[in-house]
Amino acid sequence: MGKKYGKMIMNSVGRLVPEEVNGEKQIAFQGVGKYIPEGRKYSPYISSCVNFPADGNKLVGSLKEALIKSGLKDGMTISTHHHFRDGDLIANQIFDIAHELGIRNLRWFPSASFPCHSYLIKYLQDGTINRIEGSMNGALGKFASEGKMHGIGVLRSHGGRYQAIQDGEVQIDIAVIAAPSADAFGNANGVNGSAACGLLGFALGDSQYANKVIVVTDNLVPFPCIPWQIQGNYVDFTVKVDKVGEPEKIVSGTTTVTKSPDRLLIAELTSKFCEQTGIIYNGFSYQAGAGGTSLSIGIYFDEILKKNNWKARFIRAGSNQFPVKMLEEGRVDYILDGQTFDYEGIRSMRENPNHVDTSPFTSYNFHGKGNFASIIDVVILGATEVDLDFNANVVTHSDGYLMHGIGGWQNCLAGKTVILPIPLFRDRIPIIRERVTTLCGPGELIDVIVTERGIAVNPLRRDLIDKLKDSNLPIKTLAELKDEAERICGKPQAIEFEDEIIAIVKWVDGTVIDTIRKVKS
Amino acid sequence: MGKKYGKMIMNSVGRLVPEEVNGEKQIAFQGVGKYIPEGRKYSPYISSCVNFPADGNKLVGSLKEALIKSGLKDGMTISTHHHFRDGDLIANQIFDIAHELGIRNLRWFPSASFPCHSYLIKYLQDGTINRIEGSMNGALGKFASEGKMHGIGVLRSHGGRYQAIQDGEVQIDIAVIAAPSADAFGNANGVNGSAACGLLGFALGDSQYANKVIVVTDNLVPFPCIPWQIQGNYVDFTVKVDKVGEPEKIVSGTTTVTKSPDRLLIAELTSKFCEQTGIIYNGFSYQAGAGGTSLSIGIYFDEILKKNNWKARFIRAGSNQFPVKMLEEGRVDYILDGQTFDYEGIRSMRENPNHVDTSPFTSYNFHGKGNFASIIDVVILGATEVDLDFNANVVTHSDGYLMHGIGGWQNCLAGKTVILPIPLFRDRIPIIRERVTTLCGPGELIDVIVTERGIAVNPLRRDLIDKLKDSNLPIKTLAELKDEAERICGKPQAIEFEDEIIAIVKWVDGTVIDTIRKVKS
Fold it and tell me: What is the set of domains in chain B, with CATH numbers?
């Protein structure tokens, strides 16, 4: 297909990255904290109330009308949020409309994509969409990895996405914000309505910086829509539709703890590690995801708090029934929530002022005056691969296919102690590699790898190693763990790639940390 | 003193305004809704987390240290908010420090000033402060009116202040945000702490756009400070002091309804007018201040709601015990609050999620994608003078002295029906004039003048006049009311001004609507 990119240069972690992608100049990764931006934030056009209805009623007849009034044309950047996850009914409609209007060459800039969006492959094929800048999972990832996308994908973390918007790296022409509740002025939230998803924080930057902002809702309430997680003062048009999302696919009704004995062991080892090293204390803070192992770790953490009669100051979440229970039973002061994963999370955010909605701006933006990520005591994250220098991969699998987005993963590496509890192998493929397929996170930021057969501590964390001197925990080196896995599964085969670049991976500061190539067919 | 201003030109309401003020080009008022801005919003520098402490602790030893670290130097613009009203203990300290450091020629850009700030006259005299851009009341107003300020004052409405910041008309070098509660990261609110003032909305624009932002608090809480009305991600430094404000001067303990028979009559006539014209209905909205007459009108409105078993959708406030009572008793869905005037207002904002803090961005910014002001059904405002074309003055008295700020007054003129309930004379000086001393609001936006001796309806509001055909209310023309007042008090003498301009008055779109001249001594 002949994707366009510039000369390849070696960045500071030894990865070849292009100087230019999709016609846009890139800056190669220079090392953690080394690139300091100059210049000013992106500045949207000044609006005037003269051009908006005095009665606050910005309703137009349809999404199509709103897109036309927003000036939809070839080559534009269209953004959406992913709070509806696999239950999103709006993103696909946007591109149906674009296709119907004969628009071509759009950049889709979602905060993440989900299986439901594989519907868009036909528009990636026919040139309605040039490329996706955002996570490409499952079928979309496979499509991209096979070199079938016209443009080159750009993967950014949640914080990196906000940074790119704020800094003007990505200029959004039209942001479409699907909302479970909204008023005709454009104030919107995610806590009420049949498509309730909790919050709309991933769309915050879009609302602030996009040239045109469209709010689409199936639950139109009289002004004012409270809370206004999205402020109508940023919104150009509002649209009422029958249904914005499939509730049962937006949230899993309940979040379930892992039953796998290996994963339970990993969770137990992780919490014991945190207990023995004193990472958990009265007033500590942590971030853990909603995956089965993470949930288990959260439950262990909670037991440690109970046992000591301690209280956490805050949990950064991905909320679900477990942190909510802790909040309601008084074992944590606040949940600072970036996305809700189940109905309990949504209910709690709606009812409890101490369950606070956050955004990539507050939590993750590396080009702010600080952010929350680095304040957190302990962060639990996943990985698809880790190498002997603690570098980690979250976007490709060991078969080379792009399978996941970065999410908040890179941003969370700023936490005080970063732990990756991961199985030593998946489908008999060892996770600890000589060299990660894609380098998403530099090893200097990753402190601990916990597997079912042992715990490896980054030698940079002398303090943790000292605290474990008399520990009964199975402390090993990454090399030992790697050997152990390879004794069981054999040495993994090298993946064959073609030269062609199908995506780049950005670091939290907007520089390019790695390149993803087409998988050899 | 030789203030510098450019050539005078006539604007669309017949007022001579300077083309340039304090070395900055000005645009003359062109008529309501006529000036449409081009260009982009002001863009602050991009920050990086590299330059902020990873643990989120931005505390420095003192306000002086914070100001020095913020690069305080000659000619800078320093902003403060007025949520502490006459109990503010921080603004004066800033200029004490500036004076001590030998800094000169500062522009003070408060959201309003109060009697306590007359302390700063010495710094206006010695050149530490060049000028105030913001309200100048009492002693400061007199000082300015006597031509004693070095620079020329610029008066802006609350919304105009946000617009000026957003559009880059005023570039704030250092914003100092005094906060009743804050954490070391800079998250701050006004609902907790001994200096609780309710909210901090007037400082929102300052936090978003100032180059350096300092949060000063006497109530430092562990991260996170919830709610974060001001977001720490915008904050450079935090400072802990012993006391940020005098609680008893921040709020009046209780807000009291007028006892004056004339004012009670005005309030009664106003509410009857609203009832008879159908302005009050089930689901209506209104904005009324916390002055004695306004409070009375609010109480009358409440009685009309009760009588009809109606509910207001929202009250825009200036909150106090009366709207709070309505909220708690279920006669209004929401209070959208710009500033709290008593302890009940603060308590309600702290406790009740339906008592929502707003900002000049949401409520008043004319260069947004709409704002709340124009959505409101009926707005009750004051005035120092009105002329026969319904033009009104709120900043100068009939003696020519600058005595008040504009506040949200100009912004509220966007409301669907704007009523000025005012006494026909004050201190035996008639309020209805041939020509207002200073034109702050064009008559086309002012619908009704209610006095104790009659009600005048703007002829543009044919709809209202029609509804009053069979009314028993004392409907008169403004000319009749003016004659009546002059029969009682005599015709007021013309004020003598010198040529020298001491301040300009901006319209909500940043254009210059009038000029204030030095009072002849």
Answer: 56-133+170-250 (3.40.1080.10), 261-497 (3.40.1080.10)
